[in-house]
Amino acid sequence: MSDLAVYPGTFDPLTLGHLDLIRRSRRVFDRLIVAVAGVSLKPTGMFPLSVRMRLVRESLDEAGLHDVQIAPLDTLLVDFCRTHGVRTVVRGLRAYSDFEYEFQMALTNRKLEPQIETLFLMPSEEHSYVTASTVREIVRYGGDVAQFVPPAVHRYLMQMPADQSNTCLDKGGPCGNAGAFDR
Question: pLDDT 10s per residue in the chain (183 long)?
Fold first, then answer.
């Protein structure tokens, strides 16, 4: 078993697919850091870093994953890895469409820091189609996402006022349509 890995992402919000990859990564590595990106370039993001980190922690605790560390990711991933002594990055691949982007990022990270390796994991089949973008869009249209997110995330989403579910909470304005169902 390897020592330490990092699983980075925006987790906006954390999905059952993310949680599946965290569980599976934890079986491979002695220690795992879930690095929650502080800045997201996604115009449809919903939650500020503080909320995303809280929901990740609550979800991990409810899943019995108390030993998984959570940290904000506010720098280049390779710099985060250097600072925390991480040599393995875990990334999820749901479909072929993920591969091109993830492969490019892995090669870029390798160029920036040759000592860091990227390990690709596939989520369980039952979660392979779930994306945070899809969850956000379902929420914005008033749908129930209980089957896609951990209980802590679902409780938080159900407590949101209806007019806030179509707001980018960290940007203070409307998010617009993510386009998940209009293709």
Answer: 459 999 999 999 999 999 999 999 999 999 999 999 998 777 778 999 999 999 999 999 999 999 999 999 999 999 999 999 999 999 999 877 788 889 999 999 999 999 999 999 998 989 888 899 999 999 999 999 999 999 999 999 998 866 555 555 544 444 544 443 332
DSSP code of residue 174: E
Q: H or E element: which one contains 4?
A: strand 2-9
Pairing relation of β-strands 69-73 and 88-92?
unpaired
Q: What is the pTM of this model?
A: 0.86
- DSSP run (H or E) holding 122: none
CB 82 within 8 A of CB 102: no
Compute φ and ψ for 26, nearest 5 degrees.
-65, -25
Do 132 and 46 meet the contact criterion of CB atoms below 8 Å apart? Answer: no
CA angle 115, 4, 107 (to 5 degrees): 35
The neighbour count for residue 71, using CB atoms within 10 Å, is: 15
What residues pair up with 36 in beta bridges, in sequence order?
Answer: 9, 72
- Angle (deg, nearest 10), helices 16-28 and 49-62: 60
CA angle 82, 85, 91 (to 5 degrees): 80
